[in-house]
Amino acid sequence: MKELHAHLNGSISSDTMKRLMAQKPDLQIPNGMTMIEKGKKRRLEECFQMFQIIHQITSRTEDILMVTKDVVREFAADGVKYLELRSTPRDENATGMTKRSYLEAVLEGIRQCNEEELDIEVRFLVSVDRRAGSTVAKQTVKLAEDFQLSTDGVVVGVDLSGNPTAGHGRDFLEALTEARRAGLRLSLHLSEIPNREEETKLLLDLPPDRIGHGTFLHSSRELVELVKQNRTPLELCLTSNLKGQTTPSSDQHHFGFWYRMDHPVVICTDDKGVFATDLSQEYQLAADTFQLSKEQVWNLSYEAIDHIFASSRTKTALKERWQALKPSML
Ligand code: 5GP
Q: Where do transmembrane segments lie in this chain (predicted)?
């Protein structure tokens, strides 16, 4: 499997969370504030409050290093062979963590996992948080460019995420255009909530290389046409949308709309910690809900390779591996 949409701080498992909390007894975090259990739901706004709580728990560079290594190992244990992780660089005055030292910690975690020779390739996208505004967005892209040059192909792109009710897409056009110019690939969260046509149209004009969620794109014929014309792949996260209540039920998930249209879609987890899932479960849920055959599931996973941000050499190697695995998977 390939995981292309995973936010680091949303992907922390309950085991790792327990270890982090044990190191910070002064933080009084009530139960259920870092994970939404099976069968439970929250409003989208509450999900974003959960991220703020998690950020209090991962406030030091050593936390970020540990979390990165654990998350990569867990994806590898789930059978993910190629992972694009994303995260928002963060300053924490109380601990002295800076956006730069934050990114260094993530990239060190990825490097250490490489040394462990896990069966997984990892790339990284630097996240621009909508809540932080346009000036921070430009600083973040500048940092992404610095690390793109110094990490030999690990930093491959930029993500636009954060609370979709905060700010407006136009605030980020300049920063995202600069990222593109520098050769960074763009994955943008678009139309996660209703009535964002104007903003989405503006951002689709960049154009993005992939779209995160796109939950309400199909309520506008014009947006659907634009996305179809560019064949922009959609990163779809079923459990996340169900638990965050932007989708009423799995059979009404927009996976069905785009899949039936033969539009490129990639199944992802979003925040495997917060939403208590993993990529195998997400494939299973899509297969059960939309009655996909084993062959169709294999094809979904195979076609995801076309949409990764790594080099064509990596794509070719993954495709060969997938072809070799095919007989055992069907
Ligand atoms: P981090 O970037 O701190 O590693 O991961 C958590 C952050 O990812 C959140 O604070 C938020 O900015 C972003 N994020 C996680 N899940 C979602 C989502 O479903 N939608 C959006 N727009 N942003 C998300």
A: none
Distance (angstroms) between ligand 1 centre and the Cα of 329 equals: 33
The pTM for the full model equals 0.98
Q: b/e per residue, 35-65, with b = 16+ CB within 10 A?
A: bbeeeeebebeebbebbeebeebbbbbebbb
Please write the tens of the pLDDT for every residue from 288-307.
999 999 999 999 999 999 99
How does pLDDT run across 191-212, given as a tens digit for each residue?
999 999 999 999 999 999 999 9
Asked if CATH classification 3.30.465.10 holds for the domain at 2-329, the reply, yes or no, is: no
Ligand 1 lined by 239 (C-beta under 6 Å)? no
Please answer whether residues 66 and 20 qualify as being in contact, where contact means their C-beta atoms are separated by less than 8 angstroms: yes
Residue 254: what pLDDT?
98
Task: State mean pLDDT over 101-125.
Answer: 97
Determine which one of 145, 192, 199, 235 is catalytic.
Answer: 192
